[in-house]
Design brief:
By secondary structure, the chain is an alpha+beta fold. Helices cover about 45% and strands about 15% of the residues. The protein has three domains: about 80 residues, no CATH class; about 60 residues, no CATH class; about 90 residues. Helix 5 runs antiparallel to helix 6.
Length: about 260
């Protein structure tokens, strides 16, 4: 499809455009609209209180709403079902389910041909190999090579050691390191501030519920359920609240700067 057929958005077709995701039924091959069934309420969007980013959550099957619109069908139901039956035989769980801790250079390596990121290809004799993610997803990059991650890491670390052997380079490294630690500490302070503000609002909400109960506005059962929900939200926020962090500056040994 990347040979002359323009995608609806972006520059190229990716595998995810066709295959999508199983649970929310995204992707061209999974979307029931193509057999004349409109669905909604498949996802709920929530905002991460720490990062502020929106996160999608798949709703339960019983919460999904459907409406039959046969005039929109471009494939018959039998064909659509046959396609769905093919997925379990060929698909694997998304790599994020098995995502391991980040490596030293995660997110930093780029393809020399197209500039896209590098992602894991496979393991060969117990060693991780990486390849261009654009080539992997859409075959629209000419870089088909696979590289051993340990060889890249070894070459990079050897280069760092050589460059940082100069006192001026080491001083710059320590300066950048301390600056980053200060920034991370400031991020923690900001995240704690945001969560503390949300906790304060929830505490006010809890106090209001108790006041309504004492004043006879709310029945005991209703007040109890609502108060327990508020407390549950507060507990979840407390878990997400990062521990305070103070920047501890790194200093150079005297022999390094002499």
């Amino acid at each position: 499809m990347n040979d002359g057929i323009p995608p609806p958005r972006g520059e190229r077709w990716n595998a995810s455009t066709l295959n999508g995701s199983k649970a929310p039924q995204t992707g061209i091959l999974r979307n029931p609209i193509y057999m004349g069934v409109k669905q909604w309420n498949r996802l709920t969007m929530k905002r991460n209180p720490t990062t502020g980013k929106r996160i999608s959550r798949t709703n339960q099957a019983e919460d999904v709403q459907s409406l039959s619109l046969p005039h929109l069908a471009i494939v018959d139901a039998a064909t659509f079902r046959r396609v769905q039956e093919m997925f379990p035989q060929t698909e694997k769980d998304h790599p994020s389910k098995y995502r391991r801790a980040k490596t030293l250079f995660s997110g930093l390596m780029k393809c020399g041909c197209c500039g896209a990121g590098m992602s894991m290809k496979d393991k060969s004799k117990g060693r991780i190999r990486i390849q261009c993610s654009t080539m992997k997803e859409s075959r629209s990059c000419s870089n088909t090579r696979a590289f051993y991650l340990d060889e890249i890491a070894e070459a990079a670390l050897d280069g760092f050691a050589e460059k940082l052997s100069a006192p001026a380079a080491m001083e710059q490294f320590v300066k950048s390191y301390n600056s980053e630690r200060t920034r991370l500490a400031a991020d923690v302070i900001e995240k704690r501030r945001v969560i503390d503000k949300q906790l304060g609002l929830l505490k006010m909400k809890e106090d209001k519920l108790w006041s309504d109960y004492d004043g006879g506005i709310l029945e005991g059962r209703i007040a109890n359920d609502r108060i327990m929900n508020v407390k549950r939200e507060m507990d979840e926020l407390e878990v997400k609240k990062p521990l305070p962090r103070k920047p501890s500056p790194c200093t150079l040994a005297p022999w390094r700067v002499s």
